[in-house]
Structure formats: structure tokens, C-alpha cells
Design brief:
The structure holds 2 protein chains of 2 kinds. Chain A is an all-alpha fold. Chain A contains 3 helices and no strands. Classes of the chains: A mainly alpha, B mainly alpha.
């Protein structure tokens, strides 16, 4: 097994851990943390698979996509945090309730 | 494969999994965010291991640093907001009903197994587009292939990304005004570090912008270091003078997207193709775009950290 396949599987593992936490926990800030970890997992898969070029330098196109992805993720996180603060100030709740 | 390299890889992977699990399972949210910042630092090391130094620079500045700062600021505001109303609401909830939990675990295991099998079934050697990029790199205007892809071959994606940043800031501004600042007592660390680091960060940002043409670096890395300088100054209580708040601030914010759009229109009229630079001017065009983008990215990310439209103070509720 190449090291890049190991990192790609690690990326899948991070994605799953994040997805599990996103579903299970109700606190919005924790969900935002989980979304960020899921994003990191996806980026890890992209970059690990870009390294499958034997001895030559890795494929730069997924690298550019991941840099774009990191910037988009921070913008989305900032907007999500502002939405969470607005929701808390209006409803005094910090958790998304389950529908029973 | 080298046994030491395998040891390093396994330690790195174990560290990442352990940090990710503890970030998400830790009951105290402050500790969770600090662990998330550590996770970002370890991710940056992983990018270096995977021969992606540009991503490592961007991750440590934006992914670990700025996201961590945003999360900590939001947590502080959240706790301040909710401590007046509900007393000590628990920040971790009880798991949902038992059968539903097992069903979710089974579905997640199946998903992971499916994705893992998909990865394992891929061919171990896949050059992708690296051959095409290397062939055209000489006429792209820069020497760094990632910068060439970002600013030349896939310049359209970067144009859209500039607008994503701007739209996110507009969303944040339209939702809230700047929260009331609680002046903490200034300590020696913040005083000295802010005085020392701010000029250094501005210099480093300019260096990263310049060196990004032929070495790891570029507009996003430079912009995020500039944003770090902005965040450091905001933490000391400094705010933009009121006379700079309307037109100069807005001009700097739209400088990046506007530069991209104007170059796009220019090349469309000249070459009949969107964002196709004439090869003899490609380097100059890319440097111009990167400079405008750095300014915009830095100011936008610092404004996102502030969390509200500067200038109008919210009355204490």
C-alpha cells in the first residue's frame, strides 16, 4: 500500500467521524466544528489522490482546488457562526431540537 | 518503503484521528476549539508530507489560525449571550433513542466501507493533469505550477472565489452589527506581540505575494497573513478610523473581484476568450491580480472576524 492510499483512507475516516458528529450532536457550534473536520477529510482525499504520480511532482490542479476549498470553507464557517449567533439572540437556544 | 517514513506516517495518521475524535467528543467547547486548532496544525504537517507546501501555508493561516479565531470569538459571544438567560445549558446533548443510534452507526459504517473500497479500487498510478500543466507552464507567466493553475488556467474559479468571500462578508454584515466590545485589561503579551508582529506580518505577506510566482506562496497565503495582522490589531481594541469606514474600506473590499472582472472583460474584448492572457504580459497580469486579491482577502477575512458592520454599536440588551 502506498502512503497516499493510507492518507486517502484517513480522509474518508475523518469525513465519517465528522458526519457522525454532525448527525448525533445538537449544539450548533459542535455541528460547525464537525463540518470543518468533514471538509478537511475531503481535502485530504483530493490531495492524497493527486500524489499518485510516481516520481514526478504531484498534480497541481487538485492542489489549487483545495486552496480554493479552504478559503470557501472559512467564509462558510464565518457566515454559519453569524447565523448561529443571530439564532441564539432571537430564540435563546443554542441547540437544534429533535422533532419528536 | 523506509521504515522510519512508515513510522512517521502512522504516527501522523493516529494523531489526526485522535485529535479529530477528541475535538468532536469533548464536552467543553473551548477545549474542543483549541484541539481543533491543533488538528489544523497537524493537517498542515500532513500537507507538507503530501508535497503540497502551498496548501500547508494556506491551511495553517486560514484553516487553523483564522477559523480557530472565528470559533473562539463566536463561543465567547455565545456564552455572553446565553449566560443572561438560560442557566448553564449543557453543551453536549444526550444521545438519541437507542435503535436510531444503532441504525445510524450501521449506515455510517456502510458508507465508510463503500468509500474506502472506492479508494482502494483506484489505480495506484494516475498522473491526472500534471502533464498538461507542465507542458503549458512556460507560457503561463509564472514558475509555480499551483499559482499557474490558480491564476491562469483556472482563473475563472478564482474569480468566483473572490465573489464568494465578498458575499459571505455581505451576509455577515447584513445579519448583525458590531457587538459591544468589552475592554479587557491589556497585558504584556498582547501589547508587545501586537507591536512586534504587525509590521513583521505585513512584510511576510508582501514576501509571500512576491515569491508565489516561482515558489510556494501566492495571493491566498499572503492575504491570510495580512488578515492575521488585522485580527491581531482588532484584538487590541483598535478600530478603523471613522473617516475610512465608508468609501476606502469598500473600495479595498471590492478591489480583488473588480480587478478580476475588469481583466476578464479586457481579455474577452481583446482575445475573444475569457481570461486568456497574452503570453508576454501574463506575468504582469498575474502579479496585478494577485496584489488586488491579497488586499481584498486580507481585509475581508479581518472583517469576517469582527463579526458585524463596523461603525454602528449595538446598544446593550
Amino acid at each position: 500500500m502506498n502512503p497516499e492510499i493510507l492518507y486517502a483512507l484517513l480522509g474518508v475516516g475523518l469525513f465519517t467521524i465528522g458526519l457522525y458528529t454532525l448527525i448525533i450532536h445538537a449544539h450548533i457550534l459542535r455541528k460547525i466544528l464537525a463540518l470543518n473536520i468533514m471538509g478537511s477529510g475531503v481535502f485530504l482525499v483530493l490531495v492524497a489522490l493527486a500524489k499518485r504520480t510516481a516520481e514526478s511532482p504531484p498534480d497541481p490542479v487538485p492542489h489549487a482546488m483545495v486552496i480554493t476549498g479552504i478559503v470557501v470553507a472559512v467564509s462558510a464557517t464565518a457566515l454559519a457562526l453569524t447565523l448561529m449567533l443571530k439564532l441564539s439572540s432571537l430564540t435563546q437556544q443554542t441547540e437544534i431540537p429533535d422533532d419528536k | 518503503m523506509n521504515i522510519l517514513l512508515w513510522l512517521f506516517d502512522s504516527l501522523l495518521c493516529l494523531g489526526l484521528i485522535w485529535l479529530a475524535w477528541n475535538t468532536l467528543a469533548c464536552p467543553d467547547l473551548f477545549k474542543a476549539i483549541v484541539l481543533f486548532i491543533a488538528f489544523g496544525l497537524l493537517m498542515s504537517l500532513t500537507w507538507v508530507r503530501l508535497e503540497a507546501p502551498d496548501i500547508a501555508l494556506a491551511e495553517v493561516a486560514i484553516g487553523a489560525g483564522l477559523t480557530g479565531a472565528l470559533l473562539l470569538a463566536a463561543l465567547a459571544r455565545l456564552r455572553f449571550m446565553t449566560k443572561k438567560s438560560a442557566p448553564k445549558q449543557s453543551e453536549i446533548n444526550e444521545p438519541v433513542a437507542k435503535p436510531s443510534l444503532y441504525l445510524q452507526a450501521i449506515i455510517l459504517t456502510l458508507t465508510t466501507a463503500g468509500l474506502g473500497l472506492a479508494i482502494l479500487s483506484l489505480h495506484p498510478y494516475a498522473p491526472g493533469l500534471s502533464a498538461d500543466v507542465s507542458a503549458k507552464l512556460a507560457t503561463s507567466g509564472v514558475g509555480n505550477p499551483v499559482t499557474a493553475v490558480l491564476l491562469n488556467f483556472r482563473g475563472y474559479d478564482t474569480l468566483l472565489e473572490m465573489f464568494v468571500l465578498l458575499v459571505a462578508l455581505l451576509g455577515v454584515w447584513s445579519l448583525s452589527s458590531e457587538p459591544l466590545q468589552h475592554e479587557a485589561a491589556s497585558g504584556p503579551v498582547l501589547d508587545n506581540l501586537s507591536r512586534l508582529l504587525t509590521p513583521v506580518l505585513i512584510l511576510v505577506s508582501a514576501y509571500l505575494l512576491w515569491v508565489g510566482a516561482n515558489a510556494p506562496g501566492g495571493a491566498f497565503q499572503a492575504g491570510s497573513v495580512l488578515a492575521a495582522a488585522g485580527v491581531l490589531m482588532l484584538l487590541t481594541g483598535w478600530r478603523l478610523p471613522a473617516r475610512l469606514l465608508s468609501l476606502p474600506l469598500r473600495l479595498t473590499l471590492v478591489a480583488g473581484p473588480a480587478a478580476f472582472v475588469s481583466i476578464a472583460m479586457f481579455t474577452f474584448l481583446l482575445e475573444k476568450n475569457l481570461l486568456e492572457y497574452p503570453p508576454e504580459y501574463a506575468g504582469v497580469i498575474i502579479l496585478f491580480l494577485e496584489t488586488m486579491a491579497t488586499l481584498s482577502i486580507g481585509i475581508t477575512l479581518a472583517a469576517l472576524f469582527l463579526g458585524g458592520h463596523p461603525g454602528d454599536k449595538k446598544e446593550p440588551s
